[in-house]
Specification:
heterodimer; A: 210 residues; alpha/beta; 7-stranded mixed β-sheet; 6 helices; 28% helix; globular; B: 453 residues; 5-stranded parallel β-sheet; 13 helices; 23% strand
């Protein structure tokens, strides 16, 4: 696989329990866990996707719960090239929160960030269509006004999950993305250093000759 | 699931999101402790934050300029991340070590600092970073260079277990001055080694045992050897990324974060031990609290030292530095008739800390007179035209007690040194007092990286 690789930092936003981590788990591992515990200890997943003759490597950042008390660090938005704003189609409150996150992203994130609005848990509607509390049209309208990609998904049945990431990959201007070297550190700039890579190389004082 | 469903019992409460507190919060969460981390301010970093230009004006100036005027001169506010405390990372220092072992390197990118410069007789000179630079450096004469080489060979080959490598010197009994004497080094070389390499801020070390100086020089040499240009690293977007990175580590391991949450009351048990805090979000309990000095002013005392820091915005590189995008300048005390060195830390738009074409220079020193702004005049002179200046004086505090009586464990104020080594000493010391065992850095489990090839 010698395709050029583009690394994309993708951040997840949305109210608690709308299925942010489940979407990622489905995308990364093609897996789903019922009654998943709130996310602990796993907040930086990666997944590669081939688009035409190009490989896109998603670096997916979870909020790690820091959004709960207005404590999301600016670092979270820093250099994010894509964002998933997730709501639960059965919870109107989560859609209000989604509007808030879209606004926040326009203020805090880089101008050309690609944002996808995601209405998750549509599998619930298969059993009982009356469970829907956020109209598809309403979300489509928001997406159009704010220039967002829009999907309704189910992490449980895998509906539209891969499609979300493929669409984002297609919409990222490749020249603006980092040239990935496999670990997300830009090597075109010779002053940047990869701390982790040299951790094992023992520095030798005798090399100092000042 | 209710969003406000909130635990009130924790293992540790941490107050303040300075880098010391954030590292401890991260380490304790990784250890499996349940941590609640609160800051009274609405942003991360406490005293060690990086702030925007508008925040900087608000903090330092009584009559801030209008937004229009500010943006006309300096561009967009969001392009600015100005450090309140100037420091660099030693490439081979303990903070680097902690960053690597905790994998916080995933969240922060680093750049080498282009050079370290030292002030001598009215001019600045680059501290040589390799043999070629050393040979051509005007800092020393040819014979002195040979003696210096012998001294550095002794440093690099010194082996505790092999007496033959000690060359008759005893690091715990010989003073550093005696070591210099043994190698026949002159005053100007002593000054260079002690201040530009060992990074002592005054000359007290000369009469003290040589071991700490030896270790500092070794650290300097190993740090230069690591990446080549200087011993220093600097994070993209400013030092404020470091507390944020460790806070993220803590959150990933279950730490709960509350910014913009002042402490209304600290609660103690009958035996005088810490019990909890009252805030607008409710009362939270834990047997232990870790905090910066601003949360417990009555439990801190002054170290007797005050530091002046002057943040200067420039629209040009510092003269005589080959347009370096980042550097340190050390003005040794004896060069300007002082007891303490003056430091200047310079970074620029190359680090995403200011808008294009700008440079940030932060001057700092321990104050010695009642006219501190005059004390740093020699530093201003080296910078050329200064577009804007923000000056502040900070008193340095330390805890009165070690926390064993009341379970209140307090960090020290960030000192005047140019790097983070004293800060990481404080982290390790607090960690030991809180947990009862020394900090052992283990490589973090790679469970996050579930990459599918």
């Amino acid at each position: 696989m010698n395709n050029p690789v583009t690394s994309i930092k993708l951040v997840l936003l949305g109210e608690a329990a709308v299925g942010k981590s489940s979407i990622v788990l489905r995308f990364v591992s093609n897996d789903f866990a019922e009654n998943k515990e709130p996310t602990i200890g796993a907040a930086f997943l990666t997944q590669r996707v081939n688009i035409d003759d190009h490989t896109v490597k998603f670096e997916i950042w979870d909020t790690a719960g820091q959004e709960r008390f207005a404590s999301l660090a600016p670092m979270y938005y820093r250099n994010a090239q894509a964002a998933l704003v997730v709501y639960d189609v059965t919870k109107p409150q989560s859609f209000i929160k989604a509007r808030h996150w879209v606004k926040e992203l326009h203020e805090q994130a880089s101008k050309d960030i690609v944002i996808a609005l995601i209405g998750n848990k549509v599998d619930i509607l298969d059993d009982d269509p009356n469970e829907r509390k956020v109209a598809k049209e309403e979300a489509e309208k928001l997406a159009q006004e704010e220039n967002l990609l829009f999907f309704e998904t189910s992490a449980k049945t895998a509906l539209n999950i891969n499609e979300v990431f493929l669409k984002i990959g297609e919409n990222i201007p490749l020249k603006n993305a980092n040239d990935g070297n496999g670990d997300g550190i830009n090597v075109t700039d010779n002053q940047r250093v990869n701390l982790a890579a040299s951790a094992d190389a023992t520095a030798n004082a005798s090399a100092c000759s000042c | 699931m209710a969003e406000e469903e909130l635990d009130t019992q924790y293992d540790v409460i941490v107050l303040g999101t300075g880098i010391t507190e954030c590292i401890l919060s991260g380490l304790l969460s990784v250890d499996g402790k349940k941590v609640l981390h609160i800051d009274k301010q609405d942003h991360y970093g406490g005293e060690s934050a990086s702030v925007t230009l508008s925040q900087l004006y608000e903090k330092f100036k009584q009559n801030p300029i209008t937004q229009e005027e500010r943006e006309g001169k300096f561009g967009k506010d969001r392009d600015w991340n100005v450090d309140l405390i100037p420091k660099f990372l030693m490439a081979n220092g303990e903070l680097t070590n902690i960053l690597i072992h905790t994998d916080v390197t995933r969240y922060v990118d680093f750049k080498q600092v282009s050079g370290s410069y030292v002030f001598k007789q009215g001019k600045i000179y680059k501290v040589p970073a390799n043999e070629v630079e050393a040979i051509s450096s005007p800092l020393m004469g040819i014979f002195e260079k040979r003696r210096m080489k012998k001294f550095l060979e002794w440093i690099s080959s010194y082996n505790e277990d092999e007496v033959s490598t000690h060359q008759g010197l005893d690091l715990d009994n010989n003073t550093m001055d005696e070591v210099y004497y043994k190698f026949g080094l002159g005053n100007s070389t002593k000054e260079f080694i002690g201040h530009a390499m060992a990074l002592w801020t005054n000359d007290d070390y000369l009469q003290q045992p040589a071991r700490p100086s030896f270790e500092r020089i070794l650290l300097y040499c190993q740090s230069v050897a690591r990446y080549g240009k200087s011993p220093y690293l600097y994070p993209m977007y400013g030092l404020g990324e470091l507390p944020q990175g460790f806070a993220r580590l803590s959150a990933i391991y279950g730490g709960t974060y509350m910014l913009d949450t002042p402490i209304n009351e600290v609660l103690y048990k009958e035996d005088g031990k810490f019990d909890g805090v009252k805030t607008k979000l409710g009362t939270f309990n834990a047997p232990i609290v870790i905090a910066d000095p601003t949360y417990f002013p009555n439990k801190c005392k002054s170290t007797g030292q005050k530091v002046i820091r002057a943040i200067c915005i420039l629209d040009h590189p510092v003269p005589g530095t080959s347009n370096a995008d980042s550097l340190q300048i050390i003005i040794p005390q004896s060069q300007v008739d002082r007891k303490n060195d003056i430091y200047i830390a310079i970074v620029s738009d190359a680090h995403n800390v200011c808008s294009k074409g700008h440079y940030l220079a932060i001057i700092s020193t321990i104050i010695e007179t009642d006219k501190p702004h005059l004390e740093i005049e020699p530093a201003f002179k080296l910078l050329g035209n200064i577009e804007e200046k923000f000056m502040g004086i900070a008193e340095l505090f330390e805890p009165k007690e070690d926390g064993s009586k009341d379970n209140v464990f307090l960090s020290r104020s960030y000192d005047a040194s140019s790097h983070f080594e004293t800060m990481t000493d404080d982290v390790k010391d607090i960690y030991f007092r809180v947990t009862g065992h020394p900090l052992v850095l283990k490589k973090r489990q790679d469970e996050e990286q579930q990459e599918q090839e």
